[in-house]
């Protein structure tokens, strides 16, 4: 089945039009394997999207144990409080509190509100270096997949990407 899927993708005009040359592979630092699902999560933003249903960014949250991901449409200008609300609504409600989080050093993620929230809830943040996939390669790789998937399915004007985001999460 894998070979037939590969053959189909190689013949698919949309897939070929959206195929990018791969950058040199960077040696990834192996992350410690968490003891159970949603013990450790990593998260990042993908920005640069046109407005779609009021959103222009995606919050990507990946479970380090199962590699399961949540792709949450949001705004690139989301506040620390807004980000905390997204986590409570989309992650903590479903999976409970993570013991550890891995994130880059973006200003939203290092805000005073989030630090206070983490401390109050007993969550231990572990910061990676922004744009350094060797420290948070798992989430960065998923980000590449999301961008490729959405390029393959969105309308020509890219205004409907938020509609396709739940299907990308399933894929």
UniProtKB/TrEMBL annotation:
Residues covered by the Integrase catalytic domain: 33-171
A molecular function (GO) term: RNA binding
Protein's UniProt keywords contain Ribosomal protein: no
Keywords: RNA-binding
One GO CC term on file: nucleus
Any single GO BP term: DNA integration
Classification via SUPFAM superfamilies: Ribonuclease H-like
Keyword Oxidoreductase among record annotations: no
Database matches in InterPro entries: Integrase_cat-core (IPR001584), Retrovirus_Pol_polyprotein (IPR050951), RNaseH-like_sf (IPR012337), RNaseH_sf (IPR036397)
Cross-referenced Pfam families: rve
Protein name: Retrotransposable element Tf2 protein
Upper lineage: Eukaryota, Fungi, Dikarya, Basidiomycota, Agaricomycotina
């Amino acid at each position: 089945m894998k070979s037939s899927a590969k053959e189909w993708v190689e013949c698919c005009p949309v897939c070929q039009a959206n195929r990018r040359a791969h950058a040199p592979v960077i040696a990834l630092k192996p992350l410690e394997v968490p003891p159970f699902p949603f013990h450790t999560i990593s998260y990042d933003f993908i920005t640069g999207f046109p407005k779609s249903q009021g959103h222009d960014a995606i919050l990507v949250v990946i479970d380090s144990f199962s590699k399961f991901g949540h792709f949450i449409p949001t705004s690139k200008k989301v506040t620390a409080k807004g980000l905390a609300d997204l986590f409570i609504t989309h992650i903590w409600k479903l999976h409970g509190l993570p013991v550890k989080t891995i994130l880059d050093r973006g200003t939203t993620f290092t805000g005073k509100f989030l630090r206070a929230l983490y401390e109050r809830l007993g969550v231990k943040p572990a910061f990676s270096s922004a744009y350094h996939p060797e420290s948070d390669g798992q989430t960065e790789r998923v980000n590449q997949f999301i961008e490729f998937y959405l390029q393959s399915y969105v309308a020509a004007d890219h205004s409907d990407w938020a509609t396709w985001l739940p299907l990308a999460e399933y894929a």
